[in-house]
Amino acid sequence: MEHEITLVVNGTARRVTVPARRLLSDCLRHDLGLTGTHVGCEHGVCGCCTVLLDGEPVRSCLTFAVTVDGRDITTVEGLAPAGGLSAVQRAFAECHALQCGFCTPGFLCTVTALLRDNPAPTDEEVLEGLSGNLCRCTGYQNIAKAVHRAAELLAEES
Amino acid sequence: MKPPPFEYHAPRDLDDALRTLARVGTDGKVLAGGQSLIPMLNMRLMAPAHLVDINRVASLDGVEAGAAGVRVGALARHSQVERGRSHPLLTRALRLVAHPVIRNRGTVVGSLAHADPAAELPAVLAVLDGSVRLARWESGRIATREVGAREFLVGPMESAVRPGELAVSAFFPALGPRTGAAFEELARRHGDYALAGVCAVVRLDEDGQVAAARVACTGVGPVPVVVDVTEASRDGWDAAARRVQEEIEPEDDIHASAAYRRHLVGVLAGRALGGAAREAAGGA
Q1: Is the distance from CB of A152 to CB of A101 less than 8 angstroms?
Q2: Does domain A2-78 have CATH number 3.30.450.20?
Q3: H or E element that contains A155
Q4: What is the CATH number for B226?
Q5: Which of A98, A123, B83, B164 has the smallest set of CB atoms within 10 Å of its CB?
Q6: B187 touching A, CB under 8 A?
Q7: B233-B239-B244-B249 Cα dihedral, nearest 10 degrees
Q8: Which residues pair with B144 in a beta bridge?
Q9: For residue B86, what is the domain's CATH number?
Q10: Domains identified in chain B, total number
Q11: What would the pLDDT profile of B8-30 be if each residue is shown by its tens digit?
């Protein structure tokens, strides 16, 4: 049976018809064409598919689209205005916090929420905040640096 | 890695949810946070014909803290309860549950109903002798029963929730005066299920002597292994830790041998009991 739902994705209401078993990750990618959200493990381990649900980072592969009918979703495409980069994205580029980039959308969403809730995290808080996202390229050091750099950029902007 | 098809139900209130669960019976499964259920569906480890999504039942998301303890509703997320800091041991255990992003969706009551013997929250419920409230639809009204931790945690991934029932809340008794608690565990990777863990509660009398000491161990039995070490602790925490080692039933698996787990529980029990006693004495 198909369900008609409305998701407010990156500020725009999107109406879509999905079967109940459609994962939010697949709904975003296949039904809405937002392929910035990546799908890695599909059981909640890798963190690639992390999006913001009403501002809170969640695994889109462990959420059914029908469950979040009517809610606000922010994907990596919505972190910055068209053509621009957010402070977190600039910091990742500046600090070489990505190589292949597959895990990056998940990291960006996670870090965006982390710095909103805690604008000046300690090293330990950064590691705890990043602990649910896997990266197979960088060795994490530059990602941790990028979080601190993003915190500086955000502090300068505000 | 996609879930098998199921019929989806999204009740708006508790009556509706319980009526639906009564109707679908053994074919139904409750969806709350989904952080254990959806991986199991994605991996096709289960295929329920009906999913009853309780995420719209707003009356279930409450957390009520009182002098006797804290009652956590079925929709209260790990992160919400962690931030509420209404119970020191529960707060500490929640920080050991998976990762912050998982805790944004996962629910406390869901972790209990999932009844993974390696999970932290069932051990907290067990060591505190807490309880879970189960509700069902019967003769046109809601009927409830309160089930103590010992009866609630039946076996590995098996709780006392019957088909048609919903775990609506869990009660974690307060620690009380001159009482300290600690949770120690060891995981191969941060956020993984631990190889073993020990949750300890120690109460001192007015002279600072041990009045009661209890632990619950994770990952070393079919359910959290609860051991009263009040007597054994008269010969010190090392003796108490040895007593705990005698009670557990660790098994070999690809992550660790039974012998290693038994050794580990001894070390963790010593640390947890010592930490709980220091906290009870006000020196945490």
Answers
A1: no
A2: no
A3: helix A141-157
A4: 3.30.390.50
A5: A123
A6: no
A7: -160
A8: B135
A9: 3.30.465.10
A10: 2
A11: 999 999 999 999 999 999 999 99
Written as six digits, the tokens of B238 are: 């090392």
Domain limits for position B206: 179-280
Chain A residues touching chain B at CB-CB below 8 Å? 1, 3, 19-21, 23, 26, 42-44, 47, 50, 53, 56-59, 61-64, 66-67, 110, 128-129, 131-133
Are the Cβ atoms of B105 and A62 closer than 8 angstroms? Answer: yes
pLDDT tens-place string over residues B195-241 = 999 999 999 999 999 999 999 999 999 999 999 999 999 999 999 99
> What's the full length of chain B, in residues?
284
Spatial separation of the C-alpha atoms in residues B50 and B163, rounded to whole Å: 12
Q: What is the mean pLDDT of the segment spanning B117-141?
A: 97
pLDDT digits (tens, 9 = 90+) for A81-130: 888 999 999 999 999 999 999 999 999 999 999 999 999 999 999 999 99
Closest by CA to A73, choosing from A32, A134, A17, is A32
Return the residue of B nearest to A1 by Cα: B7
In this complex, do A21 and B4 lie within 8 Å of one another by their Cβ atoms? Answer: yes
Banded model confidence at residue B284, pLDDT cuts 50, 70, 90 = very low
- Beta-carbon contacts of B104 under 8 Å, excluding residues fewer than 6 positions away, are A53, A56, A57, A58, B77, B78, B79
Shortest CA gap B4–chain A (Å):
7
Segment B58-84, tens digit of pLDDT: 999 999 999 999 999 999 999 999 999
The bridge status of strand B69-73 relative to strand B63-65 is: antiparallel
Token couple for B109: 């009551």
- The ipTM is 0.95
Q: Please, which contacts does B140-143 make with residues 24 or more away whose CB atoms are closer than 8 Å?
A: B142/B14, B142/B15, B142/B18
CA distance B175 to B138: 35
The architecture CATH gives domain A87-157: Orthogonal Bundle (1.10)
Identify which of B1, B8, B79 has the shortest CB distance to residue A42: B1
Q: Which helix (H) or strand (E) holds B172?
A: strand B166-173
* A131:B99 CB<8 A: yes
- Which among B140, B174, B208 is the end of a domain? B174
